[in-house]
């Protein structure tokens, strides 16, 4: 069946999907038992329509926080079409015009960073940084400084190695054995304080916990520390005040490279170009994907300093340069889309809108918290927010995942798509997630949070 025939035959599309498509992160049993898979056919602004014609407000930017500039941007599609017609692909050993142009635009937004390595997914960009750390270890530390620290609850991707650097057991479980050399540090969610401390004491405890790991492993064995600026799928976790200064100081003290994973927070999500810029962090590696081209084309980047880059320019051995390639890192559609995407973010002041509308969203969520005792805490920055649901505010007993899923399902039935920490953290898949396109208005956000209020009332009472 060709694609046009498919477009005119919704039942045929659904049946072909049911028979042959293996959906991401999905249990297929319900589809076999008569539930139709959801097929999304069109998007405009922050709305999407499914194949039955049902309209939805998308409060999670394509389900996985990607479509930062919203749907239906013809100018991005046109720029990609023009570029693909002229020069669609060439392996990354050569340069292309959009790669060159986008890297200059990007570096302009990232003072202190210099070099862009192109790939095609967030996982892959993180793998590039890990490989760079390992190669530095081999060439400068006799292979010793090769361990990579990651944080509990953070996520860095879906490959075996990025899962090895993942702090979400329900994502990595059953996929071992894992890549050796990845070591976890504790999460920094004060609401779930490991020792009951709060405020400055919690910051100090969180930093001590990192230093304890460094000392236990031996600083001379640790190459880098990989962190999300705001933990995304692990429950929208903002580090406590003073945490980042402390992290930076530890990295300096123990000569550990700092790798910030901006796959979710990058390109305006929190109200600055990158999440790390909210906290005055000076990273050695920044990885990004999703919002770089808002999903109009696949692109990811691993960005580094000249200090890191220079470690790969010694030509005294044929082995010293970065011997890595990403075939699809050479697709020109990615950077062509990324250029237009960045122009839109600037021309429409979507970073400013993210900040302003983020405050409105947080206000609405705080309002919901007043009405619903099952909201234990709301957290967020810019158009990126979470609401942690509990059975009891005092004991903080997490709401069971099934119940949280019912709330998300009820929102969906109302035509509002929100997210949740799903099948990530044993016992703690209890946070509702919000990351609408950065074009969201107050009305859009009111529609979202009103639907959430109705869903909570229905499910919890
Ligand atoms: C923080 C973070 N890093 C990395 C990734 C992996 O990106 P990708 O799915 O493009 O490989 C994700 C995906 O959700 C993510 O949330």
CATH level 4 superfamily of the largest domain: Type I PLP-dependent aspartate aminotransferase-like (Major domain)
CA distance, first residue to last residue = 47 Å
CATH topology of the largest domain: Aspartate Aminotransferase, domain 2
The radius of gyration computed from the alpha-carbon positions, rounded to a whole number of angstroms, is 22 Å
* CATH hierarchy, class of the largest domain: Alpha Beta
Provide the fold topology.
Blueprint: H1 3-7, H2 10-20, H3 29-32, E1 40-44, E2 47-50, E3 55-58, H4 61-65, H5 74-86, H6 97-108, E4 115-119, H7 122-140, E5 147-151, H8 160-164, H9 169-172, E6 182-185, H10 199-217, E7 222-227, H11 243-253, E8 257-261, E9 285-288, E10 300-304, H12 306-310, H13 333-347, H14 350-371, E11 375-380, E12 385-392, E13 397-398, H15 401-413, E14 416-417, E15 419-420, E16 431-434, H16 442-459
Parallel strand pairs: 3-14, 5-6, 5-7, 7-8, 8-9
Antiparallel strand pairs: 1-2, 2-3, 4-10, 9-10, 11-12, 12-13, 12-16, 15-16
Helix pairs in contact: 5-13, 6-13, 10-11, 14-16, 15-16
The structure holds pyridoxal-5'-phosphate (PLP).
Describe this structure in words.
By secondary structure, the chain is α/β, with parallel strands linked by helices. It folds into two domains: 38-69 and 350-459, Aspartate Aminotransferase, domain 1; 75-347, 3-Layer(aba) Sandwich (Aspartate Aminotransferase, domain 2), CATH 3.40.640.10. It is 39% helix and 15% strand. It contains 16 helices and 16 strands. It has helices at residues 3-7, 10-20, 29-32, 61-65, 74-86, 97-108, 122-140, 160-164, 169-172, 199-217, 243-253, 306-310, 333-347, 350-371, 401-413, 442-459, and strands at 40-44, 47-50, 55-58, 115-119, 147-151, 182-185, 222-227, 257-261, 285-288, 300-304, 375-380, 385-392, 397-398, 416-417, 419-420, 431-434. Strands 4-10-9-8-7-5-6 form a seven-stranded mixed beta sheet, sandwiched between helices. Strands 11, 12, 13, 15 and 16 form a five-stranded antiparallel beta sheet that branches. The protein has a four-stranded mixed beta sheet with strand order 1-2-3-14. Strand 7 (222-227), helix 11 and strand 8 (257-261) form a beta-alpha-beta unit. Helix 15 crosses helix 16 (442-459). The longest helix has 22 residues, at 350-371. The model has no long low-confidence stretch (mean pLDDT 97). Residues 64, 121-123, 126, 155-158, 228, 232-233, 261, 263-264, 289 line the site of pyridoxal-5'-phosphate.
